[in-house]
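Dear colleagues,

For the upcoming journal club I promised to circulate an example of a predicted protein-ligand complex. I picked one with ribulose-5-phosphate because it came up in last month's discussion. The inputs are reproduced below in full, followed by the predicted structure.
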Amino acid sequence: MNKKKRAGIKACDFVKDKMIVGLGTGSTAFYLIEELGKRKLDIKVVATSNQTKKLALDFGLNLLELEEVDHIDLTIDGVDEIDPSFNAIKGGGGALLYEKIVATNSSKVIWIMDDSKLKDALGEFYLPVEVIEYGHNFAFNKFKKLGLNPKIRTKDDKVFKTDSNNVIIDLYLEKPIDIKKVKAILNNTAGVVEDGLFLNVCDLIVVGYDDKVEVIENKGKK
Ligand code: 5RP
């Protein structure tokens, strides 16, 4: 079994009847959603992207819009990289805005991954920044001037658009990322909607290896 599938299946053990569950986006989340479909639990789900909405419906899950629920018991999502303090980068799949809204409004957050996502520090992966289309060239030029090595994300030779019709500027930063500095710049840039830094958001990680799966608790989260 592949590592991502191992993690996705294991994470389903944390899902209990009557829960409202936030579903992440990406290839690891696929295995989670597939397995939840098989387990036929009495749950309701909310999705972090249009792609995940479709999967949830395809696998027979009871899908609600986020606006229809008043709480989320548990969210399970993938991650692009994570450091020993449980700080992470997400948004490789372009769903960072919805993923952050859902995760930060969940009672519990679990991230599922293969072991390649575990890093000693953040910065090997680019940092996705979601900006509105209007004037995004000014944000881009500012990031360039400040040495943040920005690149506008494209797909099939066209500018990539998020589910909210925004643009993503990926920052190729030096490792380790100076989180304070980058956050200050992003907070001061008009048009920035969200960034892919998820700092100490998760309660637990589930890591798939070739021959095992490991569950690691984030003891630093209250
Ligand atoms: C999407 C994400 C994904 O969770 C992240 O990119 C990991 O993806 P995968 O499970 O395919 O490796 O943040 O916006």
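Two points we might discuss: The radius of gyration is 17 Å. The mean pLDDT is 97.

See you all on Thursday,
B. R.
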